[in-house]
Amino acid sequence: MLPLVLTGCAGRHNWLASAGAEAQAVEDLFWVLILGAAVIWSLVIGLAIYAHQTSAPRKEPQARRFIVWGGAALPTLVVGGLLIWGMVILRDITAKEGDLTVRVDGERWWWRVIYDGPDGPFTTANEIRLPQGQTTLFRLTADDVIHSFWVPALGGKMDMIPGRETSLTLTPLEQGNWGGICAEYCGGAHALMRFDTIVMPPDDFRTWLAAEAAPAEIAADDPGWQVFLDEGCGACHTLRGTEAQGPVGPDLTHMASRERLGAGIYAMTPENLSRWITDTDRMKPEVDMPAYPHLSGAELEALVTFLMSLE
Ligand code: HEC
Ligand SMILES: [Cu+2]
């Protein structure tokens, strides 16, 4: 069992290598719990061995004092202290006003992400970018079933519940791409419901936010755009600023600027995108998007070139 458990201690999902203030707070509590438990366990076992080896009789008042202080007062103090500490951490990671607010909606099996842009809120998907050193308040909802939002390296997880809003704050301290996952079993493709959390310098973040908020840039005579319209992709997907306004699937306005495809599971390359369109359910079993195996070679190529131009 041990090697299996220890495999969790590497890579970008490692919550013991915290890269954010909230993860650090939980990690501190974790180490105090583990080391404190080790000390208390050693003490108890030591006393048991000692009691076993000495045969000198104890006086009753002395024994009673030992039980009251060691068996009742000390545990109450320790557990009560840990409870208060834990509740302070819980308050800090769930309800702190942030420098910015991001809404995330869990869908089967991807993430709708809503930012407050320079000109009001706009929607994107499957990739969350955050400014380093600033606190973000996440307002979390779910569309269909319960999901759970978790970026292990940055902070604790939080359930996303249909019909209710939960919240979580993250203050990333280190730049990097800290993976996120759905941490509540939500159906067939649950294990393939991931996202990238990219922490960048605040200036770069603002530049990215402005670019991401802009509408899609499309040449009206792009043959791939024609395929997109003819095949009805726009019934489910939105390209902001165009007639494609489908609310069912991820927003594709700037999809090529994302690092990954299919909710954080494949690199964003033309080859993967092409297979995504023709073999959708083989790329992601149980996916809620139809496959388009009937497209001709030329149509597929035009469509992929068009999608990869959506930066
Ligand atoms: C019935 C609705 C529906 C239609 C029609 C549809 N899609 Fe999708 N699409 C989805 C859903 C839902 C997802 C999210 C799947 C997931 O990750 O679980 C998705 C995901 C995608 C993604 C990945 C997005 C990302 O952020 O990783 C791309 C690219 C895509 N679709 C392109 C297309 C194209 C091109 C067409 C037309 C040929 C199309 N879709 C037609 C529903 C649809
Ligand atoms: Cu989920």
Automatic annotation (TrEMBL):
<keyword id="KW-0349">Heme</keyword>
<dbReference type="Pfam" id="PF00034">
    <property type="entry name" value="Cytochrom_C"/>
</dbReference>
<feature type="transmembrane region" description="Helical">
    <location>
        <begin position="66"/>
        <end position="90"/>
    </location>
</feature>
<dbReference type="GO" id="GO:0016491">
    <property type="term" value="F:oxidoreductase activity"/>
</dbReference>
<dbReference type="InterPro" id="IPR036909">
    <property type="entry name" value="Cyt_c-like_dom_sf"/>
</dbReference>
<dbReference type="GO" id="GO:0016020">
    <property type="term" value="C:membrane"/>
</dbReference>
<keyword id="KW-0813">Transport</keyword>
<comment type="similarity">
    <text>Belongs to the cytochrome c oxidase subunit 2 family.</text>
</comment>
<dbReference type="InterPro" id="IPR008972">
    <property type="entry name" value="Cupredoxin"/>
</dbReference>
<keyword id="KW-0472">Membrane</keyword>
<keyword id="KW-0249">Electron transport</keyword>
<dbReference type="GO" id="GO:0004129">
    <property type="term" value="F:cytochrome-c oxidase activity"/>
</dbReference>
<feature type="domain" description="Cytochrome c">
    <location>
        <begin position="219"/>
        <end position="311"/>
    </location>
</feature>
<dbReference type="InterPro" id="IPR014222">
    <property type="entry name" value="Cyt_c_oxidase_su2"/>
</dbReference>
<keyword id="KW-1133">Transmembrane helix</keyword>
<keyword id="KW-0408">Iron</keyword>
<keyword id="KW-0679">Respiratory chain</keyword>
<comment type="function">
    <text>Subunits I and II form the functional core of the enzyme complex. Electrons originating in cytochrome c are transferred via heme a and Cu(A) to the binuclear center formed by heme a3 and Cu(B).</text>
</comment>
<keyword id="KW-0812">Transmembrane</keyword>
<dbReference type="GO" id="GO:0042773">
    <property type="term" value="P:ATP synthesis coupled electron transport"/>
</dbReference>
<protein>
    <recommendedName>
        <fullName>Cytochrome aa3 subunit 2</fullName>
    </recommendedName>
</protein>
<dbReference type="Pfam" id="PF00116">
    <property type="entry name" value="COX2"/>
</dbReference>
<feature type="transmembrane region" description="Helical">
    <location>
        <begin position="29"/>
        <end position="50"/>
    </location>
</feature>
<dbReference type="InterPro" id="IPR002429">
    <property type="entry name" value="CcO_II-like_C"/>
</dbReference>
<keyword id="KW-0186">Copper</keyword>
<dbReference type="InterPro" id="IPR009056">
    <property type="entry name" value="Cyt_c-like_dom"/>
</dbReference>
<dbReference type="InterPro" id="IPR045187">
    <property type="entry name" value="CcO_II"/>
</dbReference>
<dbReference type="GO" id="GO:0005507">
    <property type="term" value="F:copper ion binding"/>
</dbReference>
<dbReference type="GO" id="GO:0020037">
    <property type="term" value="F:heme binding"/>
</dbReference>
<feature type="domain" description="Cytochrome oxidase subunit II copper A binding">
    <location>
        <begin position="97"/>
        <end position="211"/>
    </location>
</feature>
<keyword id="KW-0479">Metal-binding</keyword>
<dbReference type="InterPro" id="IPR001505">
    <property type="entry name" value="Copper_CuA"/>
</dbReference>
